[in-house]
Write a structure and sequence with these properties.
about 0% strand
Amino acid sequence: MGSGRTRVLVNESIARGSAQLARLHTNAVDAERSLRVRIAQAPNDANSLFALAEQVTLRGSIEEAIALVRRGLAAAPHAEERRLWLARLELQRANPQAALAAVESLGPQSRATPEAQAFEAAVLGILGRHEPEIVIYE
């Protein structure tokens, strides 16, 4: 009798989880649709471009996310944290040279942060440029 009850609880848990995933998917689809409408109305709205980039990244569309982040940066060139995000997306796309270029485009203060320096050093290592990588760590 105990195993039957456990099976029912597991099935109910799976059903609840599936329902939650369906709601999240619907919300994500609705959010993406709303952001696309907003961008159609205001093509240079950096916040909407970045938000849409986050949405498409979640569904694995890295190429589209990169294009959206680039558009957002064109509209808001001082959004330094988004430049580092672009660098991470480029590396995820297996383009370390573009990732390095994105890091190098950071302003001096942003580029001097431990996070940016560690990322830059890692990319330099991937590119086999070990001397500049070591300089960062010194």
